[in-house]
Amino acid sequence: MPSQIPDYYRLLGVSKSANQDEIRTAYKKESLKTHPDRLVNATPTEKQKATEKFQAVADAYYVLSDPDRRKEYDLLYAANRPSSDPSSSSNFFTQFSSMFGGGGATGTASAQGNANNQPDAEGVFADVFEELLRPEVERRAPWWAYVGAACGAGIGFIIANFPGLMLGSVAGHRLGAIRDAKGKSVAAVFTQLGGDQKAEILKALAMKVLGSAM
Question: Which end of the chain, N or C, is less surrounded by CB atoms within 10 Å?
Answer without folding.
Answer: N
